[in-house]
Design a protein that fits this description.
Blueprint lengths: L1 E2 L6 E6 L2 E6 L6 E2 L1 H16 L5 E5 L3 E4 L1 E2 L1 H4 L4 H20 L4 E5 L1 E4 L1 H7 L3 E5 L5 E2 L11 H10 L5 H6 L6 H7 L4 E3 L4 H13 L3 H31 L5
Parallel strand pairs: 3-5, 4-7, 5-8, 6-9, 8-10, 9-11, 10-12
Antiparallel strand pairs: 1-2, 2-3
Length: 242
């Protein structure tokens, strides 16, 4: 069953105990306020429904997520920028701390916030196509927020973290697998099916044991991210010079 109007960036499909969140804004799949809110709502439903055991976040053909909404990021409103980036951080943190497993079906480009979404998912399946995946912030003159650095250090390969964060090295899907953005690279036509297969297998785990283990295993990182996001919001809300 699929729910949502075609004009919305997110449509939801429920399939054999798995919620599939199809992210398709018809363009580059920018992480806008509307997209964040819609993904949050899908998580609310999946986490509260005992018949749902896992969630798949699926991109549009060739594009998983190209990063935060550039209309906001280039708009010059510092408060709006801080709010969007902090909301994105809350979403990444929520994915990483969700009491149900989350699988990414990475259909192509995943840059900046798109790459951070991958870091928040349990299992990341990527398409074997010509695409760009990585954290390009330094290359465009930006410093990653502290919460993003925290999850990058947590999830990325120790061998690659300096190059893909500080040096802003962006790679194809195979390079992303080596760096730790992806767990598996498969033919493009198989991405969603394999991701759903992983989700079904994870959904078969004890939900109580999974949620408890996530809290114990990831709790310190989740708490650090929460504090960092709160600090960013407070700093962004402060008058200039305060």
């Amino acid at each position: 069953m699929t729910d949502a109007a075609p004009s919305e960036p997110i449509t939801i499909e429920h399939l054999d105990g798995v919620t599939i969140v199809h992210f398709d804004d018809g363009k580059a799949n920018a992480l806008s306020a509307d997209a964040i809110s819609a993904i949050d709502a899908a998580l609310d439903h999946a986490e509260s429904d005992d018949s749902i055991g896992a969630l798949v976040l699926h991109g549009r053909p060739g594009k998983f997520c190209a990063g935060f909404d550039l209309n906001v990021m280039r708009g010059g409103d510092i408060g709006a920028i801080v709010s969007l980036v902090s909301d994105g951080g809350e979403l990444v943190r929520r994915l990483y701390g969700s009491p149900i497993p989350v699988v990414a079906a990475c259909t192509g480009h995943a840059l900046a916030a798109g790459a951070l979404l991958l870091l928040g998912c349990d299992v990341r399946v990527g398409a074997d196509i010509d695409c760009k995946i990585g954290l390009n912030e330094v290359a465009i003159g930006m410093v990653l927020p502290d919460w993003a650095l925290t999850i990058a250090q947590e999830r990325l390969s120790k061998r690659h973290v300096q190059r893909v964060v500080a040096n802003a090295v962006v790679t194809d899907s195979h390079g992303a697998e080596a760096a730790g953005f992806l767990d598996e690279v498969v033919p493009e036509r198989d991405v969603l099916g394999i991701a759903v297969g992983h989700a079904r297998a994870l959904a078969a785990l004890s939900g109580r044991a999974y949620a408890g283990t996530v809290l114990a295993l990831r709790g310190p990182v989740l708490a650090r991210m929460a504090a960092q996001i709160t600090s960013d919001r407070e700093a962004g809300a402060s008058p200039v010079g305060s």
